[in-house]
Specification:
Helix content: 25-40%
Order of helices and strands: EEHEEHE
Distance between the termini: 48 Å
Strand content: 5-15%
Largest sheet: 3 strands, parallel
Shape: elongated
Length: 110
């Protein structure tokens, strides 16, 4: 049924050589500048490990406590700009944790 078909398998758990069969997602992160910075190193490291399609949760999965809507929108906007350079841009958020993070829901002043 799937002969000569390439499936897209995305996992948070990978090992050396799995880049031939599956891709990697960095997992749940927070909406912070630090996590955005760490996503760059994580993606570059997995590329060196032989996993070409790698991505992080754009805007962060968990919102930060005490962050205003303007601050949240700014970091999300900057994260979208960064994620255009990711091999795999993944938008994921904690549904229980706040405002939608799609680009059209952001303030746009950033």
């Amino acid at each position: 049924m799937f002969k000569d078909k390439r499936m897209l398998l995305i996992s948070r758990s990978t090992f050396a050589g799995s880049g031939a069969y599956a891709q990697h997602w960095l997992g749940d992160n927070h909406r912070t500048w630090q996590d955005m910075k760490l996503s760059i190193a994580g993606i570059m490291n997995f590329n060196m490990f032989g996993i070409p399609l790698i991505g992080a949760d754009t805007c962060g999965f968990f919102p930060e406590d005490g962050m205003t809507k303007a601050e949240s929108d700014e970091i999300c906007g900057r994260w979208y700009q960064l994620s255009t350079f990711y091999p795999f841009a993944h938008i994921n958020r904690n549904i229980e944790g706040g405002e939608p993070t799609e680009p059209y829901n952001l303030d746009g002043k950033w």
